[in-house]
Design brief:
Blueprint lengths: L1 H8 L14 E5 L4 E6 L11 H17 L3 E6 L4 E3 L5 H4 L3 H19 L4 E6 L2 E3 L1 H7 L3 E5 L3 E3 L13 H8 L2 H10 L3 E2 H6 L5 E3 L4 H9 L9 H6 L3 H16 L9 H12 L3 H16 L2 H17 L10 E5 L3 H12 L3 E5 L3 H19 L2 H10 E3 L11 E4 L5 H11 L8 E4 L6 H5 L8 E6 L8 E6 L5 H13 L3 E6 L6 H18 L3 H11 L5 H8 L1 H15 L8 H8 L38 H18 L6 H12 L8 H8 L1 H15 L9 H5 L1
Parallel strand pairs: 2-3, 3-5, 4-6, 5-7, 6-8, 7-10, 11-12, 11-14, 12-13, 14-15, 15-16, 17-18
Antiparallel strand pairs: 1-2, 8-9, 16-17
Helix pairs in contact: 2-4, 4-13, 5-6, 6-7, 6-13, 7-12, 11-12, 12-13, 14-27, 15-16, 16-17, 21-23, 21-24, 21-26, 22-26, 23-24, 26-29
Family: Belongs to the enoyl-CoA hydratase/isomerase family.
Keywords: Fatty acid metabolism, Lipid degradation, Lipid metabolism, Lyase, Multifunctional enzyme, NAD, Oxidoreductase
Pathway: Lipid metabolism; fatty acid beta-oxidation
Length: about 700
């Protein structure tokens, strides 16, 4: 009922009652305004594919014949205007096919831009990538207040390819438009209006009035103004381009992420001529689509889609109860409330509860950026010292410290109070689920939901099974994870599951290197140069040396000699309270903004410590642990493994995932390198028998 009312509340003009014609519906109103509604059949969101543009061209033929007073283009989807280009069309297409599609697309949007009548795009919800490029080809853009606009192409190793590079910098503040394209970040409607990207922001109920005002010339289309004129001159663009390159280099090296640099070059050289920039855009996009980085980032896009596709239906979860108001429990509860669930948060003490609610407010303010939405989310998050929410919850998530006896005591109290159909989940990162499930009356309703810290930024949730969990419980947990806007990775209960099993050897080897006297800044720099988001020394501090020590100790107990020993001084640091970032001192010292005080790598003069094998010493143990997990059956789907490592650890996305990297580099080469490292550094580098799985 609500969804039907929502659909009826959108102003679609006479196109509301028109029959579907492919991806479009159309109709002419009494003011001779041609309404054209994009509504891709069988999809929850619109995407801009070849078929959409081909059909648009036919509608333009009709518009030219009909000579309407104006054309209004908008979406029939509740989710938004369009989510961008249809990436599936790039998957198996040749470079020649892609070039042809782009040229055809440019011709269609140029025809739209050249129509004699006024063209108005009305955007709501998501208006991204190719969808925004379609809107930019219109004379005016009216944004509903909930709209977000952006160019996410850089996330695929690309830049806009349907005219977005030159239309956005002509219409809006050029520097703001370039920043949107360089970062891939979306912009809310009001901000988009302030930079000239849209002409008006209205509530949905005022859309029809806004169209009338536009027809009367009362809104008035704006260009980029004085700034656009100033950046019409190359010296001004060159000055800005130098700053853009410098800022981009802080986040993405040119050697591995060429797209932003090509975009800057494109604008600097051709920004004064739309026609020249259009031709250069086509050439630049075609070169990028052929790059290894783009192919791998497109692969990552499909890995994400595959993980989302593990969902089998709706979870049925409406009420979530979280036990434990520590850092993890508090974030899990806040994130669930942000996603629209009713949440109760239980703890035995009031102090951590108060701290958790304050932290939740800060996180929600940062993520939602809307006081009303923050208020609504906090209204859904209820402190529950007496754990009364247990009996009403559809899922109860335990997130208390990693102590087996403590968790079992909680389960003994909680399980008898669960309502029928509810499941019990643990956020354990290391404890075996069969051990945790001992004593449960119905272990089939018990599952692992391993979130990663910080929950608000880490996209992965490991769905941890054990031999007694039911398929229904596992499916419910998987569906719930997707409803949390997170990516599920199904794993079997095993030491460290997948991600920690792979990540800990990386972190542990870094500690051994520090013990050998290798400068910690050099260790981190090599890992970051490989593509890791953070070096392993800093990561140890970020996780907390106490936590890293506990997890490493637990894994060593379960894995035996295959896991490296932790240097004795690490335990001494933990005993002294030097825990890393959270204590202000660890492997690094930290400034007042909690940033590590690092020496510049160029200032490290001791070349005797510059091990040429340093990167392999860090990365190959990670790969070795992954193939061991495959061999043991913890997880066997290579694509899900690659996705889990990218979204759970930040493993260099431009490499397409660890197993993709291993196959490209060559299994024999990696095994030979592990053997050489074993000879020099010890048995921890022994190649796992699981490498044979990748040879088949």
């Amino acid at each position: 009922m609500l969804s039907a009312l929502s659909d009826r509340s959108r102003e679609l003009g006479p196109a509301r009652l028109a029959e579907q014609d492919g991806n479009w519906r159309s109709g002419m109103d009494e003011d001779y305004v041609y309404w054209l509604v994009l509504d891709c059949p069988g999809k929850s969101v619109n995407t801009i594919g070849r078929d959409v543009l081909t059909e648009l061209s036919r509608h333009i033929d009709h518009i030219v014949d009909q000579k309407p007073a104006a054309v209004v283009i908008r979406s029939g989807k509740p989710a938004g205007f369009a989510a961008g280009a249809d990436i599936n069309q790039f998957k198996d297409a040749s470079t020649g096919d892609i070039r042809g599609m782009l040229k055809e697309g440019h011709l269609v949007l140029d025809r739209l831009a050249d129509l004699n009548c006024k063209t108005i795009a009305i955007v709501h919800g998501h208006c991204l990538g190719g969808g925004l490029e379609l809107a930019l080809a219109c004379d005016m853009r009216i944004a509903v207040s909930d709209a977000t606009l952006g160019f996410p192409e850089v996330m695929l190793g690309l830049h806009p390819g349907l005219g977005g590079t030159y239309r956005s910098t002509m219409i809006a503040d050029p520097v703001e438009a370039m920043t949107m394209m360089l970062t891939g970040k979306s912009m809310r409607a009001k901000k988009a209006k302030s930079i000239g990207l849209v002409d008006a922001v209205v509530e949905e109920r005022h859309v029809a009035s806004a169209v009338t005002a536009a027809l009367r010339g009362e809104l008035g289309s704006k260009s980029g103004g004085i700034k656009s004129q100033a950046f019409g001159f190359k010296p001004a663009r060159s000055l800005a381009a130098r700053q853009m390159r410098k800022k981009t280099a802080e986040k993405a090296p040119k050697s591995t992420y060429p797209a932003p640099y090509k975009l800057i070059d494109l604008w600097e050289e051709h920004g004064g001529s739309p026609r020249s920039m259009q031709e250069a855009e086509l050439q630049s996009f075609a070169e990028l689509i052929e790059s290894e980085t783009s192919r791998n980032l497109v692969r990552v896009f499909f890995l994400r889609e595959k993980m989302r596709g593990l969902r089998t239906g709706k979870s049925g979860v409406k009420h979530v109860h979280v036990i434990g108001a520590g850092a993890m429990g508090g974030e899990i509860a806040a994130w669930a409330a942000k996603q629209g669930f009713r949440v109760t948060l239980g703890d035995v003490a009031l102090k951590p509860m108060g701290k958790a609610i304050k932290s939740a407010a800060r996180m929600l303010e940062k993520v939602l950026k809307d006081p009303i939405k923050v208020r609504d989310a906090l209204d859904r998050l209820m402190p529950d010292v007496d754990n009364l929410g247990v009996s009403r919850a559809d899922i109860v998530i335990e997130a208390v410290p990693e102590k087996l006896d403590l968790k079992r005591r909680i389960y003994a109290d909680v399980e008898p109070r669960l309502k029928e159909g509810a499941i019990l989940a643990t956020n354990t990162s290391a404890l075996p689920l069969p051990d945790l499930a001992e004593g449960l009356a119905d272990p089939s309703r018990f599952v692992g939901l391993h979130f990663f810290n910080p929950v608000s930024r880490m996209q992965l949730i490991e769905i941890v099974s054990h031999d007694k969990v039911s398929d229904e419980t596992r499916d419910m947990a998987t569906n719930f994870a997707v409803e949390l806007s997170r990516l599920p990775a199904p794993v079997a209960s095993a030491p460290g599951f997948l991600v920690n099993r792979a990540l800990l050897p990386y972190m542990a080897e870094a500690l051994i290197m520090v013990d050998e006297g290798i400068p910690k800044e050099r260790i981190d720099a090599r890992a970051e140069a490989f593509g890791m988001p953070m070096g392993p020394v800093e990561l140890n501090d970020q996780v907390g040396l106490d936590v890293a020590l506990d997890v490493a100790t637990s894994l060593r107990e379960r894995l035996g000699g295959s896991f490296p020993e932790t240097p004795a001084w690490l335990r001494q640091m933990v005993e002294k309270g030097q825990l890393g970032r959270k204590s202000g001192e660890g492997l690094y010292e930290y400034d007042e903004k909690s940033k590590p005080k690092k020496r510049p790598v160029d200032a490290l003069k001791d070349d005797s410590k510059d091990d040429p094998n340093l990167t392999d010493r860090l990365i190959l143990p990670m790969l070795n642990a992954i193939v061991a997990s495959m061999r043991e059956g913890v997880i066997t789907d290579e694509e899900i493994i690659d996705g889990a490592m990218i979204f759970g650890t930040g493993f260099a996305p431009f490499r397409g995932g660890p197993l993709h990297y291993a196959r490209k580099r060559g299994v024999d080469d990696i095994v030979a390198k592990l053997d050489a490292l074993k000879e020099k550094h010890g048995a921890r580098f022994t190649p796992d028998a699981g490498w044979d799985l990748l040879r088949n």
